[in-house]
Amino acid sequence: MAKPQQILHLLLGLLILIGAAPSISDAATSSPYKKSKSQSKAEASSRGGSSAVFPLSGDVYPSGMYYVTMNIGNPAKPYYLDVDTGSDLTWLQCDAPCVSCSKVPHPLYRPTKQKLVPCSDPICSALRQCETLQCDYEVQYADQGSSLGVLVSDAFNLRLANSSTVRPTLAFGCGYDQQLLNPNAPALTDGVLGLGGGKVSIMSQLKDQGVTRNVVGHCLGRNGGGFLFFGDDLVPYSKVSWAPMSRTHKYYSPGPASLYFGGKSLGIKQMDVVFDSGSSYTYFTSQPYQALVSAVKSDIGNTPLKEASDPSLPLCWKGQKPFKSISDAKKYFKSVVLSFVNGKKPNLEIPPENYLVVTKYGNACLGILNGSEVGLKDFSIIGDITLQDLMVVYDNENGQIGWIKTACNRLPKS
Ligand SMILES: *[C@@H]1O[C@H](CO)[C@@H](O)[C@H](O)[C@H]1NC(C)=O
Ligand SMILES: *[C@@H]1O[C@H](CO)[C@@H](O)[C@H](O)[C@H]1NC(C)=O
């Protein structure tokens, strides 16, 4: 069966080939974790930070990604960037000149010599050891894609919630040699927006420059679109379900969870999960995948649905008539629940519409995939499909990850 690109779109950055990889434990010790508390707008602005909100484009199916328009440079030019909480480095396909670039939506970014980040810059040492003058980088992703290039810094135009525009200079990768899954297919984005917790992440840079606090969140719309935000002004702290961020993890992880289907335990405890907005689908490691698939299949046995093969995804069902939308199909399926064991033991409820895809062939397919097939052994990935219509907050200030059900199709007023 042909594998469409989005199945493997799993942009979890496996930093970094050249030089030493930064470990999350370094990041954790350098950013002091504070006790969580409700924060009013007044408190937030008195700390000198602010927030910025960006509309998102894209969807889970068929585009397989959510992306934001960033205006970079002087004069500022727009670029589409794939929103990725699974990696730290932001990069653009780049004319430096380019050795291997795909066809991108906008003209390639062109750096000047003055924009090069010197190797002696602390942000470069976070990425690699200093051997040459310029700061070369290489990132590899779990989907086997990679980008090789040089670190540059340039102005990012950010419109803050209080209507001011700021233009902080941020370091990012100018990628002149990309290995992509489908090198000949035009790319949907000009690059990747790395929102991980490490030092090279633009979130850490914005925090260091006093622009926003190191809090980032997204709301991925079920019918596409949604919004992304930097800073904590919009976060309804007291209503959000919070789990402490695992400090041993390189990625954003709310710690271990137990797995339930239709209200019954599947016997899976201590399931290690990470949240990754750069992955279109959710991937479970072998055991939980096996347990879930058995439970769903046995449950579907009591309905009129039949298993069907579909080129879009590995496990699909058809009804008596082709499904037109998720709402036709969801009544045949039960909810999955991840129950986290740390903190106040929050649940992540995953209703059928957050794990099913209705394809153009009218089948309902499981959007939770077999992680072993893409080489995941130690942890499962919660991807875009499961994060739809939730506001998800990665609070690096307080060391916690939170979520709350929200319709993401409206940009919040702030
Ligand atoms: C908006 O917030 C930024 C950062 O806190 C501050 O520098 C700027 O003066 C504020 N602008 C207005 C119009 O209040
Ligand atoms: C998941 O993938 C692995 C590796 O390809 C395979 O051995 C295993 O049988 C698969 N699990 C299921 C339930 O299909």
Write the layout of secondary structure elements.
Layout: E1 13-14, H1 24-30, H2 41-46, E2 52-59, E3 65-72, E4 77-84, E5 91-93, H3 122-125, E6 136-141, E7 146-159, E8 165-166, E9 169-179, E10 191-194, H4 202-208, E11 215-220, E12 226-230, E13 241-244, E14 256-261, E15 264-275, E16 282-284, H5 286-300, E17 306-308, E18 316-318, H6 326-329, E19 336-340, E20 347-350, E21 356-358, E22 364-366, E23 368-370, E24 380-382, H7 384-387, E25 390-395, E26 400-405
Parallel strand pairs: 4-10, 5-9, 15-24, 16-23
Antiparallel strand pairs: 1-6, 2-3, 2-12, 3-4, 3-7, 5-10, 6-7, 7-8, 7-9, 11-12, 11-25, 13-26, 14-15, 14-19, 17-18, 18-22, 19-20, 21-22, 25-26
How would you explain this protein's 3D organization?
With 414 residues, this protein is mostly beta strands. It has 2 domains: 7-31 and 42-230, Cathepsin D, subunit A, domain 1 (Beta Barrel); 241-405, Cathepsin D, subunit A, domain 1 (Beta Barrel), CATH 2.40.70.10. Helix content is 11%, strand content 34%. The protein has 7 helices and 26 strands. A 6-stranded mixed β-barrel has the order 3-4-10-5-9-7. β3 and β4 (77-84) form a beta hairpin. It starts with 12 loop residues before the first strand and ends in a 9-residue tail after the last strand. One 2-acetamido-2-deoxy-beta-D-glucopyranose binds next to loops.
